[in-house]
Amino acid sequence: MSTRRPSAAEIAALLPLPLAHFHILVALAGDELHGYAILQDVASRTGGTVRLETGTLYRSIQRLLENGLVVESSERPDPAIDDERRRYYRTTPLGVAVVRAEAARLAALVDLARAKGLTPEAI
Amino acid sequence: MRLYRALLHLYPAFYRAEYGDELVRTFAVRSRRAGGGAGRAALWLRELVDLPRSAFLVHGDVLRQDLAFALRALRRSPGFAATAILVAALGIGANTAVFSLTDQVLLRPLPYPSPERLVQLWETEEDGCCNEVSPPNYRDWKERSHSFSALSAWHWRDGNLVGAGAPVRLHGVAVGAELLPLVGVRPIRGRLFSAADERTGAPGTLVIGQGTWQRVFGGDPDVIGRSVRFDDEAFTVIGVLPDGFAFPTREAEFWAPIRMNPDDLADRDNNFFKVVGRLAPGVSLAAAAKEMDAIGAQLAHEYPDTNDRSSVAVQPLHTVNRQSRLLITALVGASGCVLVIACINLATLLLTRALARRRELAVRAVMGAGRERVTRQLLTEALVLTVLGGGLGIAFAAALGPLLAHLVPSELPIVAHGGLDARLIGFALLVTVVTGVAFGVVPALRASGRRLDGLRERGPLGGGRSALRSFLVTAQVAGCVVLLVACGLLLRALLRVQQVDPGFRGAGVLAVQTPLPPQRYQTAAPRDAFYSRVLAEVRTLPGVAAAGYVTWLPLEMGGGIRPVEVPGEVAASPAHRPLASLRFVSPGYLDTMGIPLRAGRGVAAGDNATARKVAVVSEAFVREHFPNGSGLERTFKFAGEDRTIVGVVGEVKMRGLERRNEPQVYLPYNQGMDNDTYYAPHELVLRTSGDPYGQLSAVRAIVRRADPEVPIGKVREVDEVVWNQTASRRTQVWLLGAYAALALLLAGIGIHGLLSLAVSQRQSELGLRLAIGANRREILALALAHGLRVAAIGAGVGLVLAYAAGRSLAGALAGIEPADAVTFGVAVGAAVLMTVSGTLLPALRVLRVDAARVLLSA
Q: What is the pLDDT of residues B183-213, one digit of tens each?
């Protein structure tokens, strides 16, 4: 995976990000996780409101891999605590840039709503 | 866990291989940590929904990628893509067009509620089915039968309508009061007929179609209750029927009640009713036929003079005549042949391409695409090609629609051509997908399976493959021979029918209908005045060489058949009385039509009501009744009077070019039946020099001056009437000919493709042979001999099938033998020529094989 900065066009082509992809990328930000760990992370961070199922998880991972947003990690944790057959994933620089852009896009949308007084508190 | 693993088979294999273990492992952990039974059950429920959904989406992802790849690949080889799409389009288009016709005529139910319960009833005689019914027989059937919830009658009834703009001639139907409710139509305005409308002397009532309402009455919102004069009688419009309603055919413009008079009910020999019934609930067609048989037998017993030979036939209302059915079946067979040949072609094209790409495919396989992905990719390509071809094919089919309309029998209440609809598109899609899968999958499996070792593969091909190739070539040759023979036989039949002499010269003769209002023209005197005035003025028109009046044109109207009584002749029974077809004519008619005079004279101006009653008869009439002598001055009783023969003329085909025709009797128009306008001349014919239609406006003006209330009905050149007789045959030959030409072209391309493939695959073998001293000519001869052998086998198989096809077409061949030697010879010759020319190009390539280069690359 190249380390060059992803171009704006590359990023824009992948937006908006499907919700499942967004959650997976957030879960993988700064971490290398296997499938089950991703599911757990998403569930715990959203207080159980977002629950990915196994099939959706791996289809999403496949798409993220194809688009170059995540890669399979070659580094493994301590074999003593790891099932070596398990696959670990981590984000690429493009993945980080895309999830950032998606967050910004969502934030901008929230700002728009807020400007009209449609803040969550007001509801 | 086993269930979960089984569910994973919903995914594509490559995906399963990549992620299957991960999925199972993750699911296992989740399942362990889900807690007790309830938690685990909830997890299962969610997964059971999610997994099929995501599998479906994965398939979608793959399809999207394959499509994008396929389109890219096809764009890179536009020649191949265009050929394959065209081949698929021709095959699919030919079949879709024929399906539309078959669907419309044979498959689709008639456009009435519960159409399968509708039947038609006929009087039959020993020698065959389907005469119209006499009013008294109809009345007795209706009274005595219990099989029908309703039984009603109709007959065509044209009439002159005055009082809604210019006088017009309308084509309509007289119906029993129960008929319209029986076929289930409801008026959009006003009401239908009641029993009161049927009574003799009841005020005239009319129901009109929506088209007539718009066209003749200008969509007048107050049309109900509007008074018009119809054949000089006051009629009131009482109802309007919805757009799209047709009974008995699309041509009907109005419906009027049948009003029977006592005379009608007395004559059991006067057959002019068509009878339609709706089977009562629970009664089968067979049960109704049985009951009607019994009633027919009763009537034969009660009225032996008229009914002794007649019985009753009950048929579904949706009965397609044998000829139409045969022609459509032939087309279905032909389009099937074209489709098979197109499919073989498509398979050849795809196989050739797959083999040419086997290195690329092998590379992809090695790169980890796997056999399944490669197969899928090739299949997607095949489907893309056939779907594009299918789209083009539907366009072809739509373009063929108007032509096929000639094959829709006119006696059915259906539109001549239906255009595109969901059924048709559905059929085309089905053919497309079957074609694409069936003929994409074989090359795909071959190319991706055994050929995946294409990186190593260089050698000659195995025997099995060449057997398949020979089979494909044989099948194409056989298909071509069958089509060529069928088309050739029908072409010969068409030519034979076209050579039939109708007995008159219709070129340059214009026929104009001037139907007289029956009330004012009931007696001979006003009719005579009208005809004389019109004829005198028409004859002065520049460019008109001759003119005359006749009851009906030959071929257009087969009826007017009357019994003949010759002194001294005794018929075996009343039903065996000799018959002749009757026409009343004015002086000049026989000349105008070019009907040759053989003896005596034609009808003359002096043959008026007070002169002796004379007749001009055809040669067959003299042969039948007066075999010794010319027949002149002999007397017979016909149309209510004794008539003396003053002239003999040539035979005319009255009923049809391909039908048995009664001898003809022409009577002077003012020696007619005084109170009967049925036989009074309706048709003005004029022989013109130059464009016959150029006289029309002058004729119109003359008729308007003679009587402003007489409309102009049908106008046509008499030659068109003859031409129309062979219209459906011409369409048939044209279509089958097009299909045969298409098959020949496709097969030629296909054979060329197959053999080119063989030559290119055997390059190294041929190179080797050349290197060790084989003669190029010998190799060429070998290739040609192989081509000829395959052609001979294909032609042999084709001949057997073609003979069977010819036998089944026998009814449409107008007497041409199904084993017609000329046709078979030409068909085989064309097929062999096609095979040899398909073989020649690839064989010539053998001569250019560079032995050294081939061997070096091996």
A: 999 999 999 999 899 888 888 999 999 989 9
The phi, psi pair for A46, rounded to 5°, reads -100, 15
In angstroms, how far is CA B143 from the centroid of its own chain? 38
Beta bridge partners of B205: B236
Q: What are the backbone angles phi and psi of residue B454, rounded to the nearest 5°?
A: -60, -20
Determine the Cα angle at B437 with ends B368 and B74, to 5°: 65
CA distance B655 to B662: 8
Residue whose C-alpha is closest to residue B594's, from B719, B716, B725, B690 = B719
Least confident range from A113-122, B333-342, B663-672: namely A113-122
Assess A90–B contact: CB distance below 8 Å, yes or no.
no
Is B23 in Cβ contact with A58 (below 8 Å)? yes
Left (φ > 0), alpha (ψ -120 to 50) or beta: where does A48 sit?
A: left
Set of chain A residues whose Cβ sits within 8 Å of the Cβ of B1:
none
Nearest to B30 among A36, A59, A85 (CB): A36
B735 at the A interface (CB within 8 A)?
no
How many whole angstroms separate alpha carbon A64 and alpha carbon A58?
Answer: 10
Global ipTM = 0.84
Size (chain A), residues:
123
- Residue B670 near residue B487 (C-beta atoms within 8 A): no
Among residues B645, B626, B636, B639, which one has the least CA distance to residue B565? B636
- Chain A residues with CB under 8 Å of B54 CB are 53, 55-56, 58-59
CA distance A35 to chain B (A): 6
**Residue B12 touches partner A, C-beta closer than 8 Å:** no
Lowest mean pLDDT among B565-579, B739-753, B834-848: B834-848
- Report CB contact under 8 Å: A86, B27: no
